[in-house]
Task: structure prediction
Amino acid sequence: MLKMTRIATVSAMVSLGAGMLMTGLATPARGLTTSDKPAAILVWPKVVVDTSGSLGAGPTETVIQLTNTNTAPALAHCFYVDANSHCAANAPNAGDVCQSSLQCPPGGPVYYSCVPSCSEEDFDVILTAGQPIGWSASAGLGASSLITKGTCTGLGTPCTIDAQCFNSTCDLSNTNLGTGIPPVPEDPFAGSLTCIEYTTGAAPALDVSSNTLKGEGTIESLVSGEPPQVEIYNAVGLQGTGTAPTDPSVLQLGGTSGAPGSYGACPTALILDHKFDSASSSTDLTLVPCGDNFLTRTFGNVTAQFVVYNEFEQRFSTSHAVPCFFESVISNIDTLYSSRSIFSQAVSGTEFGQTRIRGVGSAQTGRGLIGVARVANPELGGSGAYNLWEQGSPDFTTVNPDVITIP
Amino acid sequence: MRTIQYGGAGGLVALLGVCALVVGTARADVYTERPGSILIFPKVVNTSGAEGRTTVIQITNTGNMADQTRCFYVTPSATGCAETDFDLFLTKQQPTSFVVASGRGMQSTPGLSPGLIPPVQPGFIGALICAEVGPDGAPLNMNQLKGEATIISADSPDESGYSPDQSKYDALAVQGLKPNNNDDILNLDGTEYNNCPATTIVDFQPFGATDPIIEALGNGGICSDNAAPCNNSSQCNSGATCDTGQSTVASVLSLVPCNLDLENGIATKVTLQVKAWDEYEVYRSTALSFSCVGNIDLTKIPQLLSSNFLPDAQFVTMQLTPSVGGPVLGVLESTYADSVGNAAGTAANLQVEGAGAAAQITVPSEQ
Result:
């Protein structure tokens, strides 16, 4: 956990190190989310783990990659959001992870509720200059995989304490000391990960200027005897604007000139291009709200409106709630019967479509959405993940900005 | 709740970005998540044989006005850089798609036909570039285009052309910045169109490192007696052991220069300075070169192999900076294989930083 007990000064400039790249300069902020540029907040919308394969898709794991593109160390304060549902307290298998009431318990004869829930677990990652790290979500990352030794100033020899340095001090500023990445809290697990950039040192402070974090999520499913299914997506970034928040525990995403945000805003709309679902192709969509309250565990709650266009320019629409985490095959967004869905090829009449996703609602955490998609061949296997496109900057004179509140 | 008081927030207060639809304040960068006026698909393949693959292209008009584009297939040729072009016409909000191996006829698939699209030749490895144009064929900035590419195995396709292995990436969109001067030179210079990036960042697993997921959950090894795939020794015959550490991750970097002379077919020669670090901060550097379109097999670059980093290193970050030929755009495709060669591919968009040098795409003029 972060310890901040002194007055902290936010620095907007990042010094260049000799021999390192010019990319250590603070990156000017952009107004919307980004999946192709380093940022100050990263969101991995889809983190899934099922090492035993109990959910039916084979053993599944997510590898999280996080890189510091800066020439100086960086600290990432990260939050896993656990969006597992659990069998109700009066079920014989109370507390078990479930996806529907049919699993509470499996085989019945009486089925109990499968209760949705959201919770969070946070941890720190300290990255050295230019360092890439990665970890399996089910295992976390231990000290053996990290840089835990500093160097004696002026001597260059490794050390962990000053006493190991002859007439010198042990410089621990370029190590991963302080990093502790736990495994995800449950297995199976479905949820998301959010990391927020801080400066390093004795009094870490929110870094809303450097924009040096980038990340990827690699999801692999392994079914015995079949080729692995591998898909990779870029973490979605929110760039810092250089405006420090009045309250460092309340991170505002976007704003007006009179009340500017510390980070870029989530877009008005996400755009998903997809194949309409059929026997040979299905698209899986994952959405998370932009805003969350990790302090009170009042997670984002947004209603997503979907407008679907087929290749004849014909238009359908539907909506669905997004409470902290939403994942669905698109043809199950509007109905349990995929063949009757507006996202099905049978209904739309064409192979490909464009879906525009817009968040609405009045939650205090905001109405923005972040997402990622995955296309798969249900019959033959094979899958690929891709980031969504975005369009439009919200009018914050009429809507509240998204807010992330942290402990 | 902790209280953090700031002694003074130094530094700049950056402007918030404006609506992506508005052609206004110049941003010297390329997007993979916002519609633009130029779409670039750095990796388009149509290969045959046992491991043949082809590419499904999706292009969408995200605007409420009709949009016309000129598209160019680009591939290295004996004389330089060959191009084949065709036009697309999209109505408002219209998505369309085509398989490069077969192109698209006027009535070959459901949906409003965007126009005739020629197939590429067998063995094609190159790129696709599409630019918004007006009714007269002259370049135009409307910033309405988005696209994706799905690379699929050509073996055993289903009726829709999809088959077991598929890798998907977002096209790169370059935004137009002001009313276009409508000539055949597209200036990616921060005034007519956004600049291409100064630096491209590639995160990958070096060849020689194992895949942690396959090693943990899949067949990362082979039995010592009969070479059967295994995860641990309990899966082998009595007395035999499971020799793990056999999974591999192999990556290919596909790059296209932002300087393109499609009118004269002159290939741009590019040299990139490469700086790479593993998670233990071991640093390596090298240079990569290509001409016209680059498909660089990272398994064949000695400085980027796992053996050139610390033994436990599994992740490398690499920064590419052009020294010759101007800025580039690209995607990374990685193939994950278990101990007996069951493999799956995945494509990833690269991250970028900074504004690169001004570049030009010269397109053939409309006759």
Remarks:
- The two ends of chain A are 9 Å apart (CA to CA).
- DSSP finds one helix and 28 strands in chain A.
- The helical segments of chain A are 345-348.
- Chain A touches chain B through 113 residues (CB under 8 Å).
